[in-house]
Amino acid sequence: MNDFVQALGTAATLIGHLDAELREVVVLSLGVSLSAAAIAFAIGVPFGTALVIYRIPGKGALIVTANALLGLPPVVVGLAVYLLLSRSGPLGALGILFTPTAMIVAQTILGIPIVIALVHRMMVDLWATYGDVLLVDGASRLRAAGSVLNIGRERLITAFLAAFGRAIAEVGAIIIVGGNIRGYTRTMTTAIALETSKGELSLALALGIILIILSMTVSALSYSFGRFLTGR
How far apart are CA 166 and CA 200, in angstroms? Predict the structure, then answer.
């Protein structure tokens, strides 16, 4: 018990003094996860929208696949990306394995199904309500889709934050493709895993506290944006 209290006190000190190593890990984690969430959002929104407004061959199978991939195991994604980016893989010439770029790729793959699924569900409801009206008024499908997305913008923000939440909490994939290199590819989750295995609980606790705060912040932002945009 005393060891835990001491470790917790040291963790609080690290946070309070903005320890250099702690700050470095947090900044890298935020940079990688925000980049991955933004890319997943940019890919997932058009795809999820297209599944609703256009007649696409095999649409049903694509929708089922997108929803099934919500439970995609991160370690499988990490393995797949590792095989693609390794020297003997098809993309090995890029030389990005064990770099933050590889970590962004892995987290993006995990985030895309989340954005697609959430945007698709949103568009099904809103398109049924507003889509035909906009088309009758002379708007093209693309322009009508833009208007409907604007109406559902609070749910778009939720989709982005959900992708970010998935990315920031991920450990399995990025430890495979990033290598957990100190000062280069070590994120909050991989650092927590490493420090805990070493028995160094102070840094692990400090990072865990920050990760919990970030998770709570994401939830609060999602709720606040929803209330602000709906005027409630």
Answer: 26
pLDDT tens-digit map of 145-177:
999 999 888 889 889 999 998 999 899 999 999
Residue 7 lies in a domain: no
CA distances from 56 to 49, 50, 195 (A): 12, 8, 48
Tell me which residue has tokens 């309070």. 16
Number of domains in the chain: 1
Query: 197 in a domain, yes or no?
Result: yes
Which domain range does residue 42 map to? 22-230
Give dist(CA 122, CA 114) in Å, integer: 12
Report the C-alpha gap between 171 and 189 in whole angstroms.
5
* Region of residue 182 (left: phi > 0; alpha: psi -120 to 50; beta: else): beta
8-state DSSP, 22: H
Buried b (16+ CB within 10 A) or exposed e, 34-46: bbbbbbbbebbbe
pTM: 0.90
